[in-house]
Amino acid sequence: MRHFYYLLASLLVLTTAFGSVAQAASAAPGAPRKSYIIGFYNLENLFDTYHDDGKNDYEYLPDGGNNWTEAKYTLKLKNMAKVIAEMKKDNGAWHAVLGVSEVENRHVLEDLVSEPAIADANYQIVHYDSPDRRGVDCALFYRPDVFKFIESEAIPFTFEPSRIDWSQWTQEEKDRFKTRDILMVRGTIDDEMFAIFVCHLPSRLGGKGADLRPRGAEIAYQRAMELQKEFPGIKIVVMGDMNDNPQDVSMTEFLRGKEFIKDVTDEDFFDPFLSMIKAGYASLYYRGGNNIFDIVMVNNAIANAPEGTFQIQPIVKKKYYGRIFNKPFMTNQSGQYKGTPLRTFSGGAFVGGFSDHYPTYIVVAK
């Protein structure tokens, strides 16, 4: 049955209120096409109800500030699975790979992929515990029948080598700073090599984050360029909650995100969400403004792919190459926050929603 869905996904033209997902560039008449969904979702504090040693997870305990009970945790899992299942329903196929962030540990990931709504996807997990003080990590789900895993690594945040001036930071401050690792997973899809980076760059809270996010982007970029040299032609996707918008310096200068495919070289990334934020799209609302922090970029080997290989496809209004998945059930329908994501907590009260971020994704096809 699963193979039927994959074939169906390659043939369907999926039209939604925001556009279509499957078909973009035309194949030769009668030729079957292969298309796959690659995306990212910030799960907004997916914590279990147990304390992890050395982590500041106390608010997500039964006696903590959020009174985080098994019933609330169970509902959170169900809600996250519902969103993933609804994306599959909308697209006709499960994501080939789905990066996630704000997850506490492997236990919550295993609970999530076991949810009945998404168990048929048979998602496998790549995860490392990171040094983040709250204990939130990045991870990757992948379908093993599509994505053939080769290797993975957790890339730590370091201050060097960098073109950023860190003179305002003392060594003590550098040693004390802890954040999420960047996850890199390498594998193949239909014998084409891919590297998937999953990021959750440092928060906007605090006075020095303006340097930390560009540094996080720089770390991902440096490793991506190393992989391009080591594996010529490798297809690279950099995704995550960047805590910055597509037009911010971290994305345009340090990750070299370009708005138009024609401008992308082997030293650049194509950022489909740069055009979308200019058009008024949003994946979250921060301090009253529309933002797209949830970004999926691709390197030149995907943006301007050689003929017959996987290339990024326009999927929204036959114009935009990214999609923000924002169904009504995930969105506040009334009140002060009308039109914004329906999150787990609002104003300190448990409202049983989903996430403060909408998931984003791209489609590659050949």
Task: Give the radius of gyration.
Answer: 20 Å
Average pLDDT over all residues: 91
What portion of the residues fall into strands of 2 or more residues?
25-35%
Shape: globular
Helix content class? 10-25%
For the sheet with most strands, the description reads: 7 strands, mixed
Q: Show unreliable segments.
A: 1-31
Q: What is the CATH topology?
A: Deoxyribonuclease I, Chain A
Indicate the structural class.
alpha+beta
| Topology pattern, helix = H, strand = E | HEEEHEHEEEHEEHEHEEHEEEHEEEEE
Q: Give the CATH level 1 class.
A: Alpha Beta
* CATH level-two architecture: 4-Layer Sandwich
Number of helices: 8
Number of domains: 1
Give the termini distance in whole angstroms.
23 Å
Task: Write a structural description.
The chain has 366 residues and is of the alpha+beta class. It has one domain (2-365): Deoxyribonuclease I, Chain A, CATH 3.60.10.10. It has eight helices and 20 strands. The strands form five sheets. Strands 3, 4, 5, 6, 16, 17 and 20 form a seven-stranded mixed sheet that branches. The chain has a seven-stranded mixed sheet with strand order 7-8-9-10-15-12-11. Strands 1-2 form a two-stranded antiparallel sheet. β9 (192-200), α5 and β10 form a beta-alpha-beta unit. α2 packs across α3. The radius of gyration is 20 Å and the shape is globular.
